[in-house]
Amino acid sequence: MTENYKRIMDAEIEKIKASGHRPRLLLHACCAPCSSAVLQELSRVFDITLFFYNPNISPKDEFDFRLQELQRLLFCMGLDKINIVAPPYDSSEFENVVAGMEDLPEGGARCKKCFWLRLEKSVAFAKENGFDYVTTTLSISPHKNAGWLNEIGLELGEKYEAKYLCSDFKKGDGYKRSCKLSAQYNLYRQNFCGCLYSKEEAEKRLNRT
What we know:
With about 210 residues, the protein is α/β, with parallel strands linked by helices. The chain contains 8 helices and 4 strands, in the order H-E-H-E-H-E-H-H-E-H-H-H. Strands 3-2-1-4 form a 4-stranded parallel β-sheet, covered by helices on one side. Helix 2 (about 30-40) runs parallel beside helix 3 and helix 5 (about 110-130) packs parallel to helix 6. It starts with a helix and ends with a helix. About 40% of the residues are buried.
């Protein structure tokens, strides 16, 4: 039976609200569009720090522009007090973990390796810096496997003794809200996840239409 990760998150949030405590959350962010609806929902409950760790994004100009759009989103949403932590760009970190998987299709084992890379860095940072919770915006995408993301996050949470917040942000019209907010703030909505291989696959799809 598939876990309902949104229901698990909602139950955890209700506990937090009942406690009267406002926890610190490290939110791994992949881009501004995916972050928009997630920030709208979670900023009511958590003190958030964004963690922009995405060595999969290529080229560096694309990485820099997505980071700029994330900064602009915070300003547009009146959340500019939220801090963004962005480790230095190093695409070799991604290239090393997916070596030998270059020809695999998008959405498969290569992507799972990429999820693990980004989530491990995020969970480790959350533990080292005393955050109460850690999670990622990635599950808002209908193209991302929420089961994988939560399984990886929970396993890493046990490894680092950090509290991973389960999520499936696409549910409850989360993805639709992200699209509306992207249009409202005129956000750059990329047509590929980030890596060279996802870009090549997106270009092939366009050429077939």
